[in-house]
């Protein structure tokens, strides 16, 4: 059974993620202990809340270092604020430096954007279809499915930065098309919450658990 270290840095939603991973076939350990992280086959970086607080707690318990170290040897999946934390910086609460694993920024939705002839509501909460042009194994059986979102900020990869060479994205429409998920080398990240997305979310987690990098 695949061992997944679910990283604990003081954010909520850990137990629902742990339960979804277990249902999808993983052996889950909630931890920020370096020994547990080293022993795991794969890493999960969850996250809810404000970026400044999230980065503070990551750095305070060493999760930022653990993620970068894990990326050298094993698959890592990041969810919601966990995905945003992978970027260079977030504009939430000013400018917050993040992990710098993916080139780009995290931006607030623009209140002037329109969806179905109406101004979008912020935060973006609810079910939306996610589409990718890739046939990557992680998206098998999941492409064009509906996933659950709850966020006010979205990730904006820098397509011209060499660090993003080979980046695979999946997009969602909310006023405009935005990056709802990405795959880069052994990183898989989703802005939406697979653990709250019923059948499609569990299939996505199952694909990650069985992903051979």
Automatic annotation (TrEMBL):
Q: What is the designated name of this protein?
A: Imidazole glycerol phosphate synthase subunit HisH
Reactions catalysed, as given in the entry? 5-[(5-phospho-1-deoxy-D-ribulos-1-ylimino)methylamino]-1-(5-phospho-beta-D-ribosyl)imidazole-4-carboxamide + L-glutamine = D-erythro-1-(imidazol-4-yl)glycerol 3-phosphate + 5-amino-1-(5-phospho-beta-D-ribosyl)imidazole-4-carboxamide + L-glutamate + H(+); L-glutamine + H2O = L-glutamate + NH4(+)
Q: In which pathway does it act?
A: Amino-acid biosynthesis; L-histidine biosynthesis; L-histidine from 5-phospho-alpha-D-ribose 1-diphosphate: step 5/9
**What is the protein's known function?**
IGPS catalyzes the conversion of PRFAR and glutamine to IGP, AICAR and glutamate. The HisH subunit catalyzes the hydrolysis of glutamine to glutamate and ammonia as part of the synthesis of IGP and AICAR. The resulting ammonia molecule is channeled to the active site of HisF.
Domain Glutamine amidotransferase span(s) in chain numbering? 6-208
The record places the active site at: 80, 193, 195
Give the matching Pfam families. Answer: GATase (PF00117)
Q: How does it assemble?
A: Heterodimer of HisH and HisF.
Lineage at the top is: Bacteria, Pseudomonadati, Pseudomonadota, Gammaproteobacteria, Moraxellales
GO MF, one example: lyase activity
Q: Which UniProt keywords apply?
A: Amino-acid biosynthesis, Cytoplasm, Glutamine amidotransferase, Histidine biosynthesis, Hydrolase, Lyase
Q: Does the keyword Membrane apply?
A: no
Question: What Enzyme Commission number does this protein have?
Answer: 4.3.2.10, 3.5.1.2
Q: What broad class describes the main subcellular location of this protein? A: cytoplasm
CDD domains xrefs: GATase1_IGP_Synthase
* Protein localization: Cytoplasm
Fetch the SUPFAM superfamilies from UniProt: Class I glutamine amidotransferase-like
């Amino acid at each position: 059974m695949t061992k997944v270290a679910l990283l604990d840095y003081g954010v909520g939603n850990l137990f629902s993620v742990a339960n979804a991973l277990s249902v999808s076939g993983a052996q889950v350990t909630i931890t920020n202990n370096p020994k547990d992280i080293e022993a795991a086959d794969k890493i999960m970086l969850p996250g809810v809340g404000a970026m400044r607080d999230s980065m503070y707690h990551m750095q305070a318990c060493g999760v930022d270092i653990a993620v970068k170290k894990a990326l050298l040897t094993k698959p890592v999946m990041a969810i919601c604020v966990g995905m945003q934390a992978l970027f260079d910086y977030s504009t939430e609460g000013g400018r917050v430096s993040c992990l710098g694993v993916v080139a780009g920024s995290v931006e607030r939705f623009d209140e002037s954007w329109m969806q179905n002839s109406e101004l979008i509501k912020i935060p973006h909460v609810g079910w939306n279809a996610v589409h990718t042009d890739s046939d990557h194994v992680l998206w098998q059986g999941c492409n064009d499915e509906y996933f659950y979102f709850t966020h006010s900020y979205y990730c904006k990869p820098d397509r011209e930065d060499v660090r993003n060479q080979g980046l695979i994205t999946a997009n969602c429409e909310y006023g405009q098309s935005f990056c709802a998920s990405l795959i880069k080398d052994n990183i898989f990240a989703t802005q939406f919450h697979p653990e709250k997305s019923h059948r499609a979310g569990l299939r996505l987690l199952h694909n990650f658990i069985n992903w051979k990098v």
